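ASSEMBLY PREDICTION REQUEST
Request ID: AP-0331
Submitted by: J.K., bench scientist
Number of chains: two
Total residues: 900
Priority: normal
Notes: Please return the full assembly, not individual chains.
Input sequences:
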Amino acid sequence: MANKLDSKIPSGPIESKWEKSKFDYKLVNPANKRKHSIIVVGTGLAGASAAASLGELGYKVKAFCVHESPRRAHSVAAQGGINAAKNYQNDGDSTYRLFYDTVKGGDFRAREANVYRLAEVSANIIDQMVAQGVPFAREYGGTLANRSFGGAQVSRTFYARGQTGQQLLLGAYSEMMRQVDAGNVELRYRREMLDLVIIDGKARGIIVRNLLTGEIESYEADAVVIASGGYSNVFFLSTNAMACAVTAAWKAHKRGAYFANPCYTQIHPTCIPVHGENQSKLTLMSESLRNDGRVWVPKAVGDKRHPNDIPESERDYYLERVYPSFGNLAPRDVASRQAKYRCDEGRGVNESGKAVYLDFADAIKRLGEDKISERYGNLFEMYDKITGQNPYKQPMMIYPAPHYTMGGLWVDYNLESTIPGLFVAGEANFSDHGANRLGASALMQGLADGYFVLPYTLGNYLGGTKLEKVSTSNDAFKAAEDGVRKEISKLMGIKGNRTVDSFHKELGHIMWEYCGMGRNEAGLKKALQEIPKLREEFWQNVRIPGDANYLNVELEKAGRVADFLELGELMCRDALERQESCGGHFREEYQVDGEAKRDDANFCHVAAWEYTGENKASIRHKEELVFENVHLATRSYK
Amino acid sequence: MAGKTLNLTLKVWRQKGPKDQGGFVELQAKNVSEDASFLEMLDAVNEELVSKGDEPIAFDHDCREGICGACGFVIDGEAHGPMKSTTVCQLHMRNFTDGATLTIEPFRAQAFPVIKDLMVNRSAFDRIISSGGYISQNTGNAVDANAILVPKADADEAMSSATCIGCGACVAACKNASAALFTSAKISHMALLPQGQVERKERALRMVAAMDAEGFGACTTTGACEAACPKDIQLTNISRMNREFFVANATKRPKHSDGGAG
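STATUS: Completed
Returned structure:
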């Protein structure tokens, strides 16, 4: 078992690990590439960029998209920007500094070698995206513009208004569509992966449900890439799009891929607060707003005056007060926790008391409304539409919300999971971000994996592995198809009394309450009793109307919630075992004056969980983390 | 923000599948919070339908932040509803009056066949993109990003065109169900940038041909698309597309076969 967690980190100095790997990797000659097929599940930033580059190399790619079009993937929602160590601003940025910031930002729970590679290829990503026509913001002289972002003291964030994610996705999507046109990528829409097929110990295909017709389909390949995104929707209310689910990754987990650090979820500090019972999701206001917005609450408990009527002397700009050197740009976990403390003290605003102000009055005074509108106009409009309040005239209200998930399928340096031939990219894997993700680093990782890592590591796998020919008539495919059909008919046959959403909401409440921004032993133990009960009720009492043999939205949701009900339990177990606070993962028992207290002696490792069967306890494996370049130190943003 | 609530009557288009005839069904939406979005209002109606064992109203939606372009249908004759520059997921109920009757139906266009209820198939848009809506740039050998200088004004204009989310409201709003605004936005985005120059003519020819082949109607520049667009994509894009197409067509060169000896 233990040898399964071989991280395959190349030897040698960190600066040359990737170069050396690329040289050592086995190659597949161009004429042989077209004989290999690769499945890519998910066509967001990581999936689309992987499909585009693999198609370009000559592999036969089958790409699967749960949406009606790859352009809808949730990568679109990333607003703020993408980091790259270009040092265009001459402010001292470098590959090493981006690496250093990311390791430190992840609170020393990420793998050094992966993070260095990420920093290294970050500059290529910008080159690549610009060359394919992404309209990044420019200075008057025509060069690229940069801004700063939470957790960083240099300006290394490239952006396209407030729509960076969308523009990058459209870039990667158009490159993939070019390969569709060239016949190298076969794209299938509205397909959801419901199982992974393993033959001779290797990932050889997937089972999908055609969401339009209800048909169960099998696809075979020489390797499978999962790039299906994150699982924050386990909280029901999150910033994730409605279709974001753990399903593809979870099915692979149940087939043997280890799931790493599931409790590492990022809480994002700048969301529009919850307004009511029927709310379906939370909307993020870009972190970039903290460049110019100042965060505050009234000094007095219970001060219900209109924010514009509260004089300067009666406001607590708590981030600037507590963290003078980072101020409003403190990292996400720090800023989120501070907002919670202020609200817990009774100084929160909004009728719920669960919000703090993000104020642009000073910035508008300094720069003028036009400049602010040029920088953040679309975000201000979005806020106005949702809340009915004009942020040019009064401060925004914000509150933390579940956002990105750093946990995911465990992968080695080559992005290969514990199942040979199963590769995992982007948010779906656990690598690179450690216990806390810094701003503008998710887009970077998605594109790094798809454009610059997988094309090499997949080639190495295909070039060095003996692969028998398989077809979908193989028994393994038939058995997996049967399993999927059985589960669907089981769900359809329950005909209970409760809607899928009501279960999802209840699970979300448990998760937020006991495994959210702050966790403790008692709460996690309580959650571990409640979740199995809820899961049992789900399987006896869920109601799914309609027919499984055609488009059935309730059935789709039910399958995803069933997986969340299993994942939720694993998240709580992982949180319970990790008896330390690190990054966005805050165990209340382990703190010093409200700051996270890490335990490097006992927990400087990745926890990778092995699935052992239904209703059986998963086994926790450890990958020890070694920090040779960035020395373990307590993060301080003061 | 616990505000007022509304009671509404909804006339919703229900259609089981592409071959089903479909028709309007009247439903009640009660105690709708004015802070809810239009889709959250439909969620609540759906929860009630499901509780009764009925099938929920099918509609496309995903990010619910106005960016992904998945959502969209027609409310009282207007694509994405009455608010300017707003997707239906960002349309909030405070913009409606208590007691109102709202007619909700799918985007209607021959090239967008109905899948179910309010859900239509817009994959024609993807086929238009794959016909040339890209820059041929292989991975891993791009020049340094600042080696390609783009005047800020051009970058900003390209960005404004690139903002298109491909929701299809332009098609639904057009009496001819033309996809000119969508196609022209992509053609403009790339024609405005230095990176897009090499394939500029070929792109215009191919994308316009693909648009026509999908069965979208002709553009007669009535501007209904621009008025309905949630992202304020401008009609000037269509003028630019026409010019690009005209020039490309007029200066078309015969194709030579690739390759050569030795």
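REVIEWER COMMENTS: The radius of gyration of chain A is 24 Å.
SIGN-OFF: pending second reviewer
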